[in-house]
Amino acid sequence: MRLVALTAAALLALAARAPAQDYQPVVGGGSFNAAPILEPGRYRDTLLPTEYLYYAFRVAPGQRLRVTANADMPIDDFQRLGVSGITANIHSPTRSLYTSNPDFDVRGTFRVEGEPPLDLRGPYASAEPDDANSGPWYGPGVYYLAFYAIHTGADDPPRAEIPFHFEVTVEGDAQPAATPSPSPSPTPTAAPAPDSGDDTPAPAIVAGVGGLLAGAAGSVVLRRRRR
User: Fold this and answer.
1) What 3-state class would DSSP assign to 206?
2) Distance of CA 75 to the CA centre of its chain
3) Nearest of 134, 97, 113, 102 to residue 16 by alpha carbon
4) φ/ψ of residue 180, rounded to 5
5) CA-to-CA distance for 43 and 29, rounded, in angstroms?
6) Where would I find the beta strands (DSSP E) of 157-212?
7) CA-CA distance, 154 to 148, in Å (whole number)?
8) 95-127 per-residue burial string, b: 16 or more CB within 10 A, e: under 16
9) How many other β-carbons are positioned within 10 Å of the β-carbon of residue 207?
10) What's the predicted TM-score (pTM) here?
11) Confidence of residue 192 (pLDDT cuts 50, 70, 90)
12) What is the pLDDT of residue 20?
């Protein structure tokens, strides 16, 4: 019976990890600056309790991010770590958090397979220019996805890795960004020479005439010497 129980436990563990086998391994960054810029796809990583991990994705005008995720471990092991859940947030290219909006959902929490997975949809990137000087950016650029493992245990968080997987897709067709029409620049014109107001020869002309006279005098001297 003991062997059967161990075998069943091993099969359950393998079943919990099976979904992540089709996901590409990746290493998230510990900050916005360290976030790897990824293509849309399916990825897996590990997360420590109270740790943040960041990933970045490029979004064109008319597109938005959709994110699904779940952890790959039995719920008993998940709770034994003192972790109540893993949160996810989509950040704007200015690294700000979006406010709640009925048109999109940029934050959520997930736990393990067998429970509702994370399902987020970011805002569509606007093709119109944004001249605001505060708040999140709603235009195209590099959007960030952040995960955080919530630790609620009484003891210090354990140094135990939580395997999880996530899939990021880009919804919508890319549109050309609106660009303002450039202001026509005046055609450059040559500036007229300044008028001195008298007939005094310019210094350069005087120097040129002096050089010609000196050259002529030198020629006469050379001719006299050759004779």
Assistant:
1) helix
2) 34
3) 113
4) -65, 145
5) 14
6) 162-171
7) 18
8) beebeeeeebbbebebbbbeeebbebbbbbbbb
9) 10
10) 0.70
11) low
12) 56
pLDDT at residue 194 in the model: 59
- b/e per residue, 78-93, with b = 16+ CB within 10 A? beebbbbbbbbbbbbb
pLDDT value at position 9? 43
Structural contact between residues 142 and 55, judged by C-beta atoms closer than 8 angstroms: no
Instruction: State how far the alpha carbon of 35 is from the alpha carbons of 4, 6, 54, 145, 169, in Å.
Output: 44, 40, 5, 9, 17
Distance set, CA 11 to CA 6, 50, 76 (Å): 9, 29, 15
Handedness of CA 82, 84, 86, 89 (dihedral sign): negative
* Cα-based angle 183, 185, 187 (whole degrees, multiple of 5): 155
How do residues 89-103 score in pLDDT, each as one tens digit?
999 999 999 987 889
β-pairing, 52-59 with 107-110?
A: unpaired
* Structure tokens given for 120: 């987020």
Per-residue pLDDT tens over the stretch 65-81: 999 999 999 999 999 99
Token pair of 76 as six digits: 């008993």
Per this entry, what is the length of the chain? 227
